[in-house]
Amino acid sequence: MSEHESNPPAQECILCGRCLSVCPVLLGTGREELSPKAKQHMLKTLARNPERLRLADCRVLADKCLSCGRCRTVCPQGLSVPRRLAELRAAHPGWQQWLWKQWIERGAALWPALAVFGKVAPKDVGPQTFARFMDSLRAMAPAQDITPWLAVHTYDSEVGRGRSILLFAGCTARRIQKAWHAKAEAILGNLGYTVLSERAMTCCGLTLDHAGIPDAAHEARMRNVNAWRAAGRPRITTFCASCFHGLGEYAHCADVNWEEGEAEAFANALVPLSSLWGETTFSVTDAAPARVRYHQPCHWGGSDPDKAWLAATLGARISAPSGVQCCGMGGVLQLGDQPLSRAVATRCWDALAPDEGTLVITGCSGCTMQLRSSSPAMGRSGVPVAHWLDCVRP
Amino acid sequence: MSLNANQLHFLRTLFPDGDCLTAPEEMLVFETDASRLNGAPLAVVRPQIESQIVELLRWAHAECIPLYPRARATNVVGLCVPERPGIVISTLKMNRIIDVSADDFVAVVEPGVVTGDLQKHVEAMGLFYPPDPASFGISTIGGNVATCAGGMRAVKYGVTREWVLGCRVVLPGGRVIECGGRNHKNVVGLDLTRLMVGSEGTLGVMSSIMLKLMPKPEATASLMAGFATLEEAMLAVGRVFRAGVLPTALEFMGPEVLDCLALLVPVPWPHGTGAGCVRAVLLFRIDGSGAAMPADLERLRRALNDTTQGAPMWLEQGVGSAEEEPLWEIRRLINPATYYVAPNKISDDVTVPRGSLLPALTGIRDIAARHEVPILTFGHVGDGNIHVNIMHNAADAEERSRAVEAKLAVMELILSLGGTLSGEHGVGLTKAPYVHRQLGEDERAVMHDIKAVFDPNGIMNPGKAF
Ligand SMILES: Cc1cc2nc3c(=O)[nH]c(=O)nc-3n(C[C@H](O)[C@H](O)[C@H](O)COP(=O)(O)OP(=O)(O)OC[C@H]3O[C@@H](n4cnc5c(N)ncnc54)[C@H](O)[C@@H]3O)c2cc1C
Predict the structure, then answer these.
(1) What residues does each domain of chain B span?
(2) pLDDT over 80 (residue A334)
(3) Is the shortest distance between the CB of B70 and ligand 1 below 6 Å?
């Protein structure tokens, strides 16, 4: 019996091609060899007939993935390419992974310094890649150009009355965008919550995992779970789609020493910040931009609480492009292949189609940074990009 | 076999900037398609404009190098597999919608446009491109035209063939021919457009395609009907058509399919084998004007509710896509549900004249009993297209051979009823060994002669189709 007549094992790609329609890298380039399907086929071939391929060349292709996870949501076999690639990277570590590890693990010391340096670095210095690298660093500088225009009118302070909550701010807000952290804390306080210290918590581990550094990812997960335990297993909230996704994965991680029923309790404890407003009311001030375009982070994976809340609050003022739009931030691609990351970003901006009065808002730290660094010129400056927290006046 | 330095130089010059792949790692995925068969590409090229295709076909014709047009590679019969070493032509960078005219009711597109993207685009203008293969979101117009893809809406609107007004085709040697045009009627000359539709990449490379559009229907509604027996369901199909109702889509699910669906999800109909239980389901969709929809639904219900032939014992209806979706979601779950029956399947998409559906379905049921293998039947029953899944455990050699015998028996049955081996998936590599059972010597000889006019050196997708 030839292979095509037998059904594939449960965990094997059937080459149906569904993933091509959601993969930002394929959609941005038209290069089928970069599609999730191609990567699955490559991994299968590497496992069965390693003599056919050169590992070094496979790694170059493998790294051209944004780790957005969209392929898994449409795969009839439930396969996750980022996960498979992470396993490959873990077995064969390389330089980009090392760099990411530096960024994230030593970020507290490194990032703010880089952000300042990025801000003062002249735009025309150095080769193209250096300029782009600086662009992404510059984006990490605190947002100063957004005047909050969505004022909280009345808080529903019953939402959190008598409850404690952990605010998981994530690497970006802890280190660069400290204003987000402060605002989120204020909002939770006004909603009646007692906000617990998250000092013992660290990176959610998602990026470490995708970069193929499972040990560091495991360590991060354990530290966060232990901090949650020590705090008395309270609710945890976050305002970053990628952190939410990263923490949401914990319940499925066999490497966490979950007690009976504890993984489920953790999953249930995790709630997005934008779903906690209750009956809170808002008013839009005169500082509001003429047009608001919403960028949907890949990591909401289909159900997007930010979008639902913003649509209900802002009505016709906000709109979003249709189809798959990825900012191009994810994974090791940003460091490994900046031109490709740019190509994906360009497609995203084409769909956002900003004009002079447009503000782009999103709900993910990574997306905010990437969109800021890739924002096209518009009038005298680039198109402003905000995390929704930037717009809120608590 | 491999390409020599001159040949590589030619390709790299014609396809610069990463549009010519020759590294095994980069070419790997281009060796296969959704059939999971394998071949051996010598190179992969990605044209962005027609003139690159012209140069390529001029050269490949002279060099006698096989060429394999490839879009999203979702075909399940091996059509994109470079069985003989050759060059794969990926059309994914030719994906522009060139022109949509609301006056001419015409769309002109490059072959790599995804069908669902075109549909969304024209629907935003109040226009409609009806062909809707289940793969509409993941396959292309070029692929759909080259395979004459079918879909759910084929009952009312026909298959892809009905919607192709013309195309530009680059032939081996570099000639470019223009087939058809923007006219909705055109009887001048032989119909080369129809020849291209369903040609499975064996005649030339289409560089642009002209499609017919229609106004978008205002409203849709769906009705799911459960029957006590297969026979009653098939009689109801006849009644509906005789009553003058032409559904947009009409799907059928047999008793074995209902059983495995019930293993996967809670099904809405009364399930079981006792009295009062549903053993066959029909799923209708109708479309038209919003004002007429209630009356059309009522007419459909009246045609179904014939007490002498066995009225449906269970009905559920949905008006508008939000209400209709859950009904169609059940239909889409069939594929994953089949694996609850057995780990392996042989699947075919045979088709019979509409009037022969009942003998075809009961005949298949008898074959299943005779060969002691479960056979699931479902599909686009509105146009006589039956998906046949022969379920078995391939690890058991004896069971496997019974399944293979059952497949041949189904083929014989279908041909004896005047049917066809494939209604939409095509021949490709997987059905090529059986084509002679359906097509006579003379017919195949004429087909080969026609191919020789287009492609005298036989370089276009060799070994496929006929
Ligand atoms: C989940 C799933 C559901 C499906 N459902 C259906 C269905 O309901 N109905 C149906 O009919 N099919 C269905 N199919 C099969 C498949 O989607 C169709 O055959 C589709 O038309 C193939 O389109 P493609 O873009 O993937 O083309 P490919 O598979 O890439 O190519 C198909 C053929 O077209 C030729 N070709 C492509 N572009 C050109 C060009 N520019 N010039 C000349 N030849 C060209 C290729 O050489 C090849 O022979 C399904 C497949 C899957 C995986």
Answers:
(1) 5-90, 97-215, 219-416
(2) no
(3) yes
Residue nearest to atom 41 of ligand 1 (CA): B206
- The 3-class SS string of A284-299 reads ECCCCCCEEEECCCHH
Domain assignment of residue A241, yes or no? no
Q: Tokens 């998936």 identify what position?
A: B425
Residue A290 lies in a domain: yes
Per-residue pLDDT reduced to its tens digit, A247-262: 999 998 888 999 999 9
CATH number of the domain within which A333 lies? 3.40.50
Instruction: Supply the range of the domain harboring residue A40.
Output: 18-92
Q: Within a 13 Å sphere around the CA of B81, how many CA atoms are in the beta-carbon half?
A: 23
**Residue B57: closest CA among B181, B195, B168:** B168
ipTM field: 0.92
The answer to the question of residue A237 being in a domain is no
Closest approach of A50 to chain B, Cα-based (Å):
11
From the list B26, B29, B137, which residue is nearest A21 (CB)? Answer: B137
Fold of B5-90: 3.30.43
Q: Is B92 in the pocket of ligand 1 (CB under 6 A)?
A: no
Please give the CATH architecture assigned to the domain spanning B97-215: 2-Layer Sandwich (3.30)
Does the distance separating the beta carbons of A5 and B346 come in below 8 Å?
A: yes
Residues of A in contact with B18 (CB under 8 A): 31
DSSP code per residue over B300-328: HHHHH--TTT---SEEEEEESHHHHHHHH
Instruction: Categorise residue B132: left if φ over 0, alpha if ψ from -120 to 50, beta otherwise.
Output: beta
B35 lines ligand 1 (CB under 6 A): no
Q: Does B64 touch chain A (CB under 8 A)?
A: no
Give the separation between CA A106 and CA B204, rounded to whole angstroms.
58
pLDDT at A47 over 50: yes
Domain count across chain A = 2
SS3 A98: helix
Q: What confidence tens digit (pLDDT) does each residue in B56-91 have?
A: 999 999 999 999 999 999 999 999 999 999 999 999
Ligand 1 nearest-atom number relative to CA B136: 17
CB spacing of B29 vs A8 below 8 angstroms: no
Q: Structure pTM?
A: 0.89
Q: Does the pLDDT at position A99 exceed 50?
A: yes
Domain boundary at A92, A108, A130, which?
A92
pLDDT along chain B (466 residues), means of 10: 95 96 97 94 98 98 98 96 97 98 98 97 97 94 97 95 98 98 95 97 98 97 96 93 94 93 90 91 96 95 87 94 91 83 88 93 96 94 92 92 96 97 94 93 96 98 91
Structure tokens that stand for B314 in this block: 């269970």
Q: Per residue in A194-245, pLDDT tens?
A: 999 888 898 898 877 877 777 878 989 999 999 999 999 999 999 999 999 9
Cβ neighbours around B193 below 10 Å, total: 21
Which class is domain B219-416?
alpha beta
Which atom of ligand 1 is nearest the CA belonging to B209?
41
Contact B27 A54 (CB under 8 A): no
Share of chain A above pLDDT 90, in %: 53
Q: Is there a domain that residue A23 lies in?
A: yes
Q: Is the CB of B201 under 6 A from ligand 1?
A: yes
Vertex A366: Cα angle to A365 and A367 (nearest 5):
95
Residue to mutate (ligand 1; options B36, B57, B74, B114; most atoms within 8 A of CB)? B74
Give DSSP secondary structure letters for A234-283. Answer: -EEEES-HHHHHHHHGGGG-TTS-PPTTHHHHHHHHEEEGGG--TT-EEE
